[in-house]
Amino acid sequence: MTSPPVFEADEISDENFRIIAGIAKNYAGISLSEKKKSLVYSRISRRVRQEGFGCFDEYCVFLMSEAGSGERQRLVSALTTNVTSFYREKHHFSYLESLLRQQLYTRLEHGEELRIWSAACSSGEEAYSIAMTVIKCLSTIPNLKAKMLATDIDSDVLQQARLGSYAVVEAEALFEDGVLTSCRLEDDRVVMSEKIRGMIRFRRLNLVDPWPFSSCFHAIFCRNVAIYFDRETQDQLWGNLSRRIFPGGELYLGHSERIAHPERFGMESFGHNAYRKIPSGRRGA
């Protein structure tokens, strides 16, 4: 039996870095400057070893081949950080509660369909937190119409999200917030109820590709994605998101993300990393 090649590279060449940075940019809009070279080495050297390549040269040749399409997706996953938790950045869920109770309740009570998008849902905690907030605020509306879209570029984390099953230690916030009525305990796991899972459609979506829908939403969570983009790609994203928000609807970003001059996109800042779509009658006032 032939032994796998030993990976011994202690750095990544300029050419291999350019190849990996180009793939990240073209595939997912991720901008990697030369300052990120050591980060790329630390993240991607693990992939090179795991896949049995002896050096970055071999790995990059494979990445650029037709057979490397799946690995290009895994490369993007390795370069980004899938850190999430239930009710992360709680102020956004407070904003959502206010939107649901104060701005939308009457309209929803009269039959309007609620639409919310978790645009970088990772392993699902954000999407389920949104769904549980909806149930908490709108449980008194009979025959509530509510749909949620949850998307991510990473197929592997989407599969975890669809299962809706989390270790108890990962779901401590659910015990604190008293929302276990939307879940059930199974041994050392917290499992989302059928009702909650039925509210959400999980789909793979690359935010820098054309979006295969034209729906608008009352609220969009797009957190900790734009940090990987350059300014031009960010501005394209802000414009695309704004066009998918109903007037008066809200957009929530990650803690280190800002929209410079949000009025360019028909939005206004109203809270911490939160923006509201300005109704057309108020623009330019």
TrEMBL record:
Keywords: Methyltransferase, S-adenosyl-L-methionine, Transferase. It holds the Pfam family CheR_N. Transmembrane segments: none annotated. S-adenosyl-L-methionine binds at residues 82, 84, 88, 126, 152, 206-207, 223-224. Gene3D superfamilies: Chemotaxis receptor methyltransferase CheR, N-terminal domain, Vaccinia Virus protein VP39. GO terms for biological process: methylation. The keyword Phosphoprotein does not apply. It catalyses: L-glutamyl-[protein] + S-adenosyl-L-methionine = [protein]-L-glutamate 5-O-methyl ester + S-adenosyl-L-homocysteine. The keyword Transferase applies. Residues 11-280 form the CheR-type methyltransferase domain. It is an enzyme of class 2 (transferase). InterPro entries: Bact_Chemotaxis_MeTrfase, Chemotaxis_MeTrfase_CheR, CheR_C, CheR_MeTrfase, CheR_N, CheR_N_sf, SAM-dependent_MTases_sf. It comes from the Bacteria. One of its GO terms (molecular function) is protein-glutamate O-methyltransferase activity. Its EC number is 2.1.1.80. Methylation of the membrane-bound methyl-accepting chemotaxis proteins (MCP) to form gamma-glutamyl methyl ester residues in MCP. This is Chemotaxis protein methyltransferase. It comes from Gluconobacter sphaericus NBRC 12467. The gene is cheR1.
